[in-house]
């Protein structure tokens, strides 16, 4: 499938990469700076997006009141007034996903360009590799928050139904210019996904493969070596270990979505048993969300090619 698959499967090195990805101290070299700066413009907004999503409470009460009392114009206006600014937030999240997709494509191009092999790229361009990890880290955090907040789809569904009714009745609608019909359709497809950011990432990666004959994900060292005792001892911040765990799971899920046979097949070079064991060695309350991500957001876990032992480990 191209160069990046070699990174994930380590086909260009018999024992896998022998370098340390320094997530704490990696700084861009001169050759990395152009792409690094472009991606950094996007990533600097990521934490704010997560904070806004975490604080998203929805307009459930106002919507229920409006539905239960359809003849009460004040309640209808109150519900609409509550939903419109929330839809503005949902638009902001969706637009960020598009920016993130563009940033990812830039990274994929940089990490698979000639004359270096993908593994050489990861060793030479660790700042870009770290940015790729940060995108994966953000993706899992965003999707975790989205999956546990049903208000998002409820609010947007109410917005679309009400907007449609207003159009039929020729009632001017505040907020219609903010989210036109075409954008609303795209947003609806985005939020209908259980894991919308992962879907955006996997679609972007798949497009990159088909268009550039290269798939750049990550080194399987992220799944095997960075979390060994030797590698963990190099980190000075315990949060870096949590970061690596989340990135490890992100790599597995993304790989499982874009590789034809996935991450769980016996032919996969990702050490799935080792990765699951690493997760299960952590305090349960700190990794249950990551284990659930492997259980419920991967594509090939329940395939016949997945060993019974791996399935049992994730039960």
TrEMBL record:
Occurrences of domain CYRIA/CYRIB Rac1 binding (ranges): 18-311
Residues in coiled coil: none
InterPro entries recorded: CYRI, CYRIA/CYRIB_Rac1-bd
GO molecular function: small GTPase binding
Gene Ontology CC: membrane
Pfam families membership: CYRIA-B_Rac1-bd
Subcellular location(s) per record: Membrane
One of the GO BP terms on file: regulation of actin filament polymerization
Membrane topology qualifier: Lipid-anchor
UniProt subunit comment: Interacts with RAC1 (GTP-bound form preferentially).
Protein name, entry field: CYRIA/CYRIB Rac1 binding domain-containing protein
Protein source organism: Colobus angolensis palliatus (Peters' Angolan colobus)
């Amino acid at each position: 499938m191209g160069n990046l698959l070699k990174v994930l499967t380590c086909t260009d090195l018999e024992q896998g990469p022998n370098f340390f990805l320094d997530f704490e101290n990696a700084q861009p070299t001169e050759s990395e700076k152009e792409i690094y700066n472009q991606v950094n413009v996007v990533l600097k907004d990521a934490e704010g997006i997560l904070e806004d999503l975490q604080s998203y409470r929805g307009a459930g009460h106002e919507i229920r009141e409006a539905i239960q009392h359809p003849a009460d114009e004040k309640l209808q206006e109150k519900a609409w007034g509550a939903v419109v600014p929330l839809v503005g937030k949902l638009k902001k999240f969706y637009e960020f996903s598009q920016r993130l997709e563009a940033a990812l494509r830039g990274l994929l191009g940089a990490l698979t360009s000639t004359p270096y092999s993908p593994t050489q790229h990861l060793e030479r361009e660790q700042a870009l590799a770290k940015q790729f990890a940060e995108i994966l880290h953000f993706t899992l955090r965003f999707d975790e928050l989205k999956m546990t907040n049903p208000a998002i789809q409820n609010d947007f569904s109410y917005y679309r139904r009400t907007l449609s009714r207003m159009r039929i009745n020729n009632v001017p609608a505040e907020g219609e210019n903010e989210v036109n019909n075409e954008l609303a359709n795209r947003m609806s497809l985005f939020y209908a996904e259980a894991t919308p950011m992962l879907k955006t990432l996997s679609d972007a990666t798949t497009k990159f493969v088909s268009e550039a004959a290269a798939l750049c994900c990550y080194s399987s060292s992220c799944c095997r070596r960075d979390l060994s005792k030797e590698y963990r001892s190099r980190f000075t911040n315990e949060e870096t270990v949590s970061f690596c765990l989340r990135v490890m799971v992100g790599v597995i899920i993304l790989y499982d979505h874009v590789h034809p046979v996935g991450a769980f097949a016996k032919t996969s070079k990702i050490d799935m048993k080792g990765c699951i064991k690493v997760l299960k060695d952590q305090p349960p309350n700190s990794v249950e969300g990551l284990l659930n991500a492997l259980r419920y957001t991967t594509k090939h876990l329940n395939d016949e090619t997945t060993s019974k032992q791996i399935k049992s480990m994730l039960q």
